[in-house]
Hints:
The strands form 5 sheets. The protein has a 6-stranded mixed β-sheet. A 5-stranded parallel β-sheet has the order 8-7-9-10-11, with helices on both faces. The longest helix is centred in the N-terminal third of the chain and has 19 residues, at 3-21. Residues 254-271 have low confidence and may be disordered. Helices cover 33% and strands 26% of the residues. α4 packs across α8. It folds into 3 domains: 3-120, no CATH class; 123-249, Rossmann fold; 273-318, no CATH class. The chain is an alpha/beta fold. The protein has helices at residues 3-21, 62-76, 87-90, 131-142, 175-184, 196-208, 213-216, 232-249, 304-312, 315-318, and strands at 25-34, 44-48, 53-55, 80-85, 99-102, 110-118, 123-128, 146-150, 165-169, 189-192, 219-220, 261-264, 267-270, 273-275, 282-284, 290-294, 297-301. It has 10 helices and 17 strands.
Amino acid sequence: xxxxxxxxxxxxxxxxxxxxxxxxxxxxxxxxxxxxxxxxxxxxxxxxxxxxxxxxxxxxxxxxxxxxxxxxxxxxxxxxxxxxxxxxxxxxxxxxxxxxxxxxxxxxxxxxxxxxxxxxxxxxxxxxxxxxxxxxxxxxxxxxxxxxxxxxxxxxxxxxxxxxxxxxxxxxxxxxxxxxxxxxxxxxxxxxxxxxxxxxxxxxxxxxxxxxxxxxxxxxxxxxxxxxxxxxxxxxxxxxxxxxxxxxxxxxxxxxxxxxxxxxxxxxxxxxxxxxxxxxxxxxxxxxxxxxxxxxxxxxxxxxxxxxxxxxxxxxxxxxxxxx
Length: 324
């Protein structure tokens, strides 16, 4: 087996590990290349939600473009097929459904890369034991979600994480304690099954007890979409519908995308992003990047050719905009 194949299998093993750990990531695969691109057909890389890179997808031109697109794919949950190159290379011959991502590479190579999101199984924690609770648990399990049904006394930081969705349906038996415990863990969603008046009373009590406003502000009460007068089974449907809606809209994403961090296997290094003032493509701004200081400002470039063009005539490119 050649080194290329070995690296591909290592990436897939890492993907399986991340999947077991419940981490979101994107798997990028080169499906076509135009020489002399350094990426090879079948080359694979993993881009995590935080911007870590494992594997190899291409050189200094392709890598930042793929990483940027991969983070968008993770946020949207929709796969994407990319054609990386210059518009002059392909003209109008780009098939429908393929996104052209302009890159200005000195090698004049090109890549077609398929990026697919791998998202963790939704984790729902339901607190309570009413008939509505059992309906909600059954419905969520039918969607393939991981569901934990717990008593309020079993709710703790070990049960929850930042991706968990929590529904408190204790029906007046320890509502305050359950909401406080769940809110302290900062879950992606926290809903209280109660009337609007009861919900206001619970939150008011917790505010008086010193629970921070930012924790109470995340509580949705009443939980679920407002469907009017409903049965307990329909309440379960309304809650699940709200969760599905929020997940689909990206509202429960883990927060703003962090600055790009590129980590080669066994070789971690932080790499911020900048805009090449010559070709306009996004490139890395790390210590090893092509860079040039002009009038006390540091500019970053995707390759030495762009750096040379800027150095020869900086005024011609500064009118395009300030550096990132």
